[in-house]
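**User:**
My hope is that you can spare some time for a protein that puzzles me. This is the protein in question:
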Amino acid sequence: MVNWNNIKYFKKSDFECKCHRHNEFNLALPEYAELNYYYICRYFLDPLRKDCGSAIIVNSGGRCILHNEESNGKISSYHLIDGVDDDVRPCAIDIYCPKLNKDIFDLKIRKHTNLEYCGYHIYENDRGYFMHIDFRGYKSRW
């Protein structure tokens, strides 16, 4: 079991499926995914948040199959949590920092992780921007 008390700025629920259609018997964040998100927080997001000096919002972490479809996520999305505990699929996050413009936030992200091992894309929308990062083990851009 993961001790989320070691994480200063984030909590497990930040990475659970945002559709809120799950109950205690249908958990959206299986153990393997919780562990992945814990390490992402400990070694990437917490240091990034400290460096930014401002909140970082997690738009999306894990998604159930239905929510992934509704979000137009690909069937092979790294956000997808399928409930198979022995799955080793990397996890994805969509994040933004409301106090920083996208270029500054992009520089800070690059400072805190080696994007040669990540899928990475900056999306712009009517509310501003967000960064998608998945930890797939190789570089991917789109």
The first helix runs from residue 31 to 52. Helices lie at 31-52, 65-70, 102-112.
